[in-house]
Amino acid sequence: MGKINDETPLVRDKTTMPEKYAGGIFQYIRAKSKDLPQKQQLVCNYILNNYQKAAFLNSDELAKESGTSHATVFRTVTSLGFPSYKALREKLQEVLTKTSIPPLDRLKDAFSDISNSNILDVVIEENIRNLRTMNTSELKDNFPKAIELLLPARRIYIIGLRSTRGIAVYLHALLQQFRRDVFLIDATGSDTILDVMLDMEKDDVLLALMAGSPHYTKRTVVCIDYARKKGIPVVLITNSLSSIAAPLATVLLLAPQNTTHYSSSSLLTICDAIIAALGAQKRDEANKKIDELSSLLVEYDISF
């Protein structure tokens, strides 16, 4: 018999399947794990503490992350009553989709949930807390990988629509201050996205911003899919691992929005870090262009 894969049926008696969760899937796993062997508890604990990431890991990856084995992962799935590993992962993804607040809903909530007397204090404190919690080991591992792709890139293409359009414009404007060959895709909201992307080559990089869940901008997904198929690296900055484009990214930088108000501080912080890192790596070249630009702005009476 060959190795069990993620879609292999494991539970034959469907009466043991966890069809209903009185307190949700996480409460179910937490309660069920108490009676499981120690190694299976390790798998359960990893899922409970890292469910946003676990929802997109295959069984081998989950075994590695939880410090167990491939066999232990499948024993755990069986013990929990899921018909296959794929079924467990799909359930986690379903929870992510249902519990992620869409940007427009988050914006409406912000208008009604915060007292006028302490809005500033609440927003500042929540943003600080969100920025501290987003600085995970995964982000620390992936950020240098993103810089390694962006630094030698022949051209950098940036795409960000709807709630991330302003951030994309900001990122483009700052990078263009000191670096050549930086392009903003769909800068005018036109339908010429593919006209621009047609010139992309394998030594270019697509830097995409997405903030949504469960709804995402189709044109951003089209860009990422097109770049991926052409073998062009994609750096994706997104607020959720449930993003439909997450599996397509070469490097994913997670910028969660865990605030009661609508906030882009996490996405902006990563963009600021990218700007600082690229500028520092090519300091002499960057400073030269900035000095030239400053002189031109004064010469042509644009600034003083």
UniProtKB/TrEMBL annotation:
Keywords: DNA-binding, Transcription, Transcription regulation. Residues 23-99 form the HTH rpiR-type domain. CDD domains: SIS_RpiR. Pfam families: HTH_6, SIS. InterPro entries: Homeodomain-like_sf (IPR009057), HTH_RpiR (IPR000281), RpiR-like (IPR047640), RpiR-like_SIS (IPR035472), SIS_dom (IPR001347), SIS_dom_sf (IPR046348), WH-like_DNA-bd_sf (IPR036388). Residues 146-285 form the SIS domain. One of its GO terms (biological process) is carbohydrate derivative metabolic process. The keyword Hydrolase does not apply. GO terms for molecular function: carbohydrate derivative binding; DNA binding; DNA-binding transcription factor activity. The keyword Transcription applies. PANTHER family: GLUCOKINASE (PTHR30514), RPIR-FAMILY TRANSCRIPTIONAL REGULATOR (PTHR30514:SF18). This is Transcriptional regulator, RpiR family. It comes from Thermovirga lienii (strain ATCC BAA-1197 / DSM 17291 / Cas60314). The lineage of its organism: Bacteria, Thermotogati, Synergistota, Synergistia, Synergistales.
